[in-house]
Amino acid sequence: MKTTILLSGCLAFLIAGTMTACSSVKEYQKSRINDSEMTLSNRKAEKNELNFQSYREGASGANGGKTGGGCGCN
Amino acid sequence: MKKICLTVVGMYFMLLHAFSQVTQDSASYKPRKLKLDEVDLVSSYYTQNGDHSAVRGGIGSEKVTDLANGLELKWVNWDAHQRKNTLTAGIGIDHHTAASQAWISKTGASHRTDGLRIYPSLDWTRENEQKGTSFSLGAYYSNEFNYKSVGLNAGATKKTKNNGELGLKLSAYLDQVRLIYPSEFEPASAYLGPGGGERKHPDYGSTPRQTYTASFSFTQIINTRLQAAFLLDLVEQHGYLGLPFHRVYFTDATDSVEKLPSQRFKLPLGFRLNYFLGDRIILRSYYRYYVDDWGLRSHTASLEAPVKLTPFFSVTPFYRYYVQTAVNYFAPYEQHVKTDAYYTSNYALSAFTSNFFGAGIRLAPPKGILDTHLSTLEIRYGHYTQTTDLVSDVISLNLQFK
Lengths: 74, 402
Fold this sequence. Notes:
Radius of gyration of chain A: 17 Å
Low-confidence stretches of chain A: none
CATH topology of chain B: Porin
Oligomer: heterodimer
Largest sheet of chain A: none
CATH class of chain B: Mainly Beta
Number of domains of chain B: 1
Mean pLDDT of chain A: 77
Structural class of chain A: mainly alpha
Strand content of chain A: under 5%
Order of helices and strands of chain A: HH
Shape of chain B: globular
Shape of chain A: flat
Number of helices of chain B: 1
Helix content of chain B: under 10%
């Protein structure tokens, strides 16, 4: 478990470092990036899909959704 | 389905009425008073079937239906320092039926086979566009017959110089699990009244469960067509982490209530990558690795490909693959031995793979649909299968008003 946490930390640092080295994109170049389908979050219509997946599967989290609350026991 | 239609139509007219009181602002105007900016209505109908009910120790029907309706209202204003304040109030109401609930009674005669969950929430965000920072606070409550949950969260984000954004969110969920045992284990004290008399409705009592989460995020625009997000959650749970009405049958055919450790640490790591391919196709990909100290490891990979048939109408096929190992404490029906320290026959904690696929359509014209305040309409359908034989279908509708 400790090894996993350490590896996760290293991976996060590596990804963050790689990403910050990216070339800058000007505001006027963001027409595609700002498209509503390009958002880096879940769709609102996905909310209940994520709910049932977190109840029917053992894993949850790291998707911007809730990580607790609600029973889901049926 | 009739219920969904009636709910949606009712809420649609209610929202049209609400927006009809508001005049249209120009794009540059920044209101000082709180102004209703966006309303979202999400309705879903979920149905499932399977043959590994946790209530009966890993056998029996898992038939469930769930009708979920959520309404979210968002108000916005700018203060004297040109900081954007967003207040979001939400309420959700779910109604479910579950065949397994009848088997809380040993003979399958429990009368209650349905239930209602109500969950309001309130969030406030202050965003300083000049500094590229934001700060948020939120509260959440959920109430159903056997479970209550109070959630609090605080978060902050900071934009970097190179089109990136760092985020941190801290959440706490303080839950109460109502101790509803299978009928053969129901304590006689549940029926004892304060004066020693008999209660008509038993007092089950409850026990706490706490979940604390630290969520880290980092998003980055990589070039004019590609952006990515890195997500990491550290989740710590304490308290009663099983459910009192989940049975376990041992090798000698006697039964007990599932027993799980009172602590769990979860570590999910997620990565999103979105790419605009050509002029019409977008690729939305997601991968998550998950590990916890109960021995469960999982991989999740999904891909969505919205195809823009026009600039404002898209069709989105999607596919999700999921695989997990079992927790150390899982065994099927009548396979646990009584000397086990912990035991469960809940198949959500067993080893399996699952596939989820479907499609959605999204309509979002700039002047609203048919020139009304209805700005976005999205419908999604998905079909889900597990190698445990659990099968489910979900259809969702999102209406957004601006």
